[in-house]
Amino acid sequence: MTFSHSHLLGIEPLSPPEITEILDLADQYVALNRQDMKHSDALAGLTQINMFFENSTRTQASFELAGKRLGADVMNMAMQASSIKKGETLIDTAMTLNAMHPDLLVVRHPHSGAVDLLAQKVNCAVLNAGDGRHEHPTQALLDALTIRRAKGRLHRLNIAICGDIAHSRVARSNILLLGKMENRVRLIGPPTLMPSGIADFGVEVYDDMAEGLRDVDVVMMLRLQRERMDGGFIPSEREYYFRYGLDAEKLGYAKEDAIVMHPGPMNRGVEIDGEIADDINRSVIQEQVEMGVAVRMAAMDLLARNLRARPHEVLV
Amino acid sequence: MTTTLLTNARLIDPEQGTEAPGWLLIENGAIAATGVGAERPEADKMVDCGGKCLAPGIVDIGVKVCEPGERHKESYRSAGLAAAAGGVTTMVTRPDTSPAIDSPETLEFVARRANAAGPVHVRPMAALTKGREGREMTEIGFLMDAGAVAFTDCDHVIANTKVFSRALTYARSLGALIIAHPQEPGLSAGAAATSGKFASLRGLPAVSPMAERMGLDRDIALLEMTGAAYHADQITTARALPALERARRNGLNITAGTSIHHLTLNELDVADYRTFFKVKPPLRSEDDRQAVIEAVRKGLIDVISSMHTPQDEESKRLPFEEAASGAVALETLLPAALRLYHSGDLDLPTLFRAMALNPARRLGLPSGRLSAGAPADLVLFDADKPFVMDRTTLRSKSKNTPFDGQRMQGKVLATYVAGTPVFEAA
């Protein structure tokens, strides 16, 4: 086994062989998930706690399903409604949970680095389900798996990531992963939604969709948060859709067999045209959801193997 | 009347810009004479310095002691002990306490407590506006009578230029020194890092280094209007330096400082969200750090401060964006500054020009020099002695130093305040 980490906090520390290993295992879980009997016992006896400090339906459901299919005992904690509101710090919460001996902790938090901080304080394996604008590693992995299955490879592809790059953890994790796997990554979006220092990321930056999408193999759209549309970052929703929304005309600049991706939930008519999103010949958005469960199963399986291989702590 | 002779010392004289073996005679708490060579005066007490460095005690502008309000983070007693152990003989304290030190009554309370509790000199600064809210100026005249050596709202920028220009005009009539934090507050709101690749990779809200230049540019324009005496607390970016140089050339009454952390650390030290490295303004790029070192060498930046800011564990053990800013540095200022000496960037007289002579001069204090007549505020230190920094050994109540676990060189052997040893290494 190549994967040697005790947490999955981001794509940054992963090596290309480790990424490949996760994707290979996920491929097996895709097959399992398509059977009637969807059960494995890879996580049997282990406890998985999902802590979401930020609203999420899809990601939390995906992690929950992944854990249950692998036989873990899964618990969801709605952190927004709980003790955080009573002034308890993140560390206090972590220590409390730690005392319950969970094995896998899935965490989403609105602040960058919060999941790293938590991982330093607990004894179990921590999976980052999105921290602030930092990373969302399982999203990048599921995107990679989707691309690999659609294109037959995950290298030397031209991939465009479009939209609100500055506020997107999905974009950061994808830039890192796709770069590690030797793809050419282009970022397309208005300059107000590009992060600073972007020129040093080893990517090509465009502010024009027609130019940026020319001959790409993959078009990855990002969600535009409603609160960014108030004139602070872009003038209006309709101007954004006109210049950066993916429609048939703009998609025409990409390769004929280019696939369209979106991490969801979509704003139809803002960043993506409804018809394109639903076009089964181009859009792989539903596949992304399916790959999400498989990739999360693979990641938790590998972490659990490392967890079980760890020498047991001696209880005094 | 006792006299003490410190012999066999390496005298670091920032006024002359020299370092030479010699002796120093203390009489009545003041420096009576210094000299080189074997011919030396008699004294009641002789101290052999063993060839180690003897320099004027550090005058540290911008120390936060958390009285009143948060004594659990730092008291005058603990800060004083830390200062003595760090070779700091004068703490110039900040008014960003809660409540802020913005009235003569609070200032008198603080000054009384400070000088009763601590072994080193304490010179308080007062807020420039009431509650540091940037609306109404404080009683600058009464506060000066009560002992305020300078006026500052610390890291609060007075955004209203009308308020700031009036305060500067009024301060000028009294000869008061204003210390400001050059920063464009709209641009830097909410920032936890300096914009660039590192901040973007970490997903941290960031501020362009340009915000510092914009703040400084505005303040310089106000100085042209008002003619006040002004000191920029921390200049940390290359882009702000040409503006500073121009203002100096045009004869404005302006000086500038920088913090020891911006001189010895850069943004990459934050690594995996290490909140002890969160300071204000945020750590900069390596290019900025190099430019700031060069500015200190040239004398364009006059002062190096610790910007000592105690924070307890609770306010640091948070996600980076939410964690409090600031680092303690009274005890690490000298060994950190010596990194610049060991790396060949700055020599010892230059370091002490920025840590003792210039800050004392700017505040009109007689210390910071090794000449006859100056107070015998001195630090004796071994510039080479290596050690590994262990934050639990710090005398400050708060232990938030970014240098924890790092190898450093330079140990204070003794600190003298008015000729009396207030710290001697075991």
From TrEMBL, chain A:
Keywords: Pyrimidine biosynthesis, Transferase. Gene3D superfamilies: Aspartate/ornithine carbamoyltransferase. Residues 157-302 form the Aspartate/ornithine carbamoyltransferase Asp/Orn-binding domain. The keyword Transferase applies. Pathway: Pyrimidine metabolism; UMP biosynthesis via de novo pathway; (S)-dihydroorotate from bicarbonate: step 2/3. Its EC number is 2.1.3.2. L-aspartate binds at residues 86, 169, 223. The keyword Transferase applies. It catalyses: carbamoyl phosphate + L-aspartate = N-carbamoyl-L-aspartate + phosphate + H(+). HAMAP family: Asp_carb_tr. Heterododecamer (2C3:3R2) of six catalytic PyrB chains organized as two trimers (C3), and six regulatory PyrI chains organized as three dimers (R2). This is Aspartate carbamoyltransferase. It comes from Roseovarius pacificus.
Automatic annotation (TrEMBL), chain B:
Keywords: Pyrimidine biosynthesis, Zinc. Residues 51-237 form the Dihydroorotase catalytic domain. It comes from the Bacteria. It comes from Roseovarius pacificus. GO terms for cellular component: cytoplasm. NCBIfam families: pyrC_multi. InterPro entries: Amidohydro_3, DHOase, DHOase/Allantoinase_Hydrolase, DHOase_cat, Metal-dep_hydrolase_composite, Metal_Hydrolase. The keyword Zinc applies. Residues 343-423 form the Amidohydrolase domain. SUPFAM superfamilies: Composite domain of metallo-dependent hydrolases, Metallo-dependent hydrolases. CDD domains: DHOase_IIa (cd01317). This is Dihydroorotase. GO terms for molecular function: allantoinase activity; dihydroorotase activity; metal ion binding. GO terms for biological process: purine nucleobase catabolic process; pyrimidine nucleotide biosynthetic process. The keyword Zinc applies.
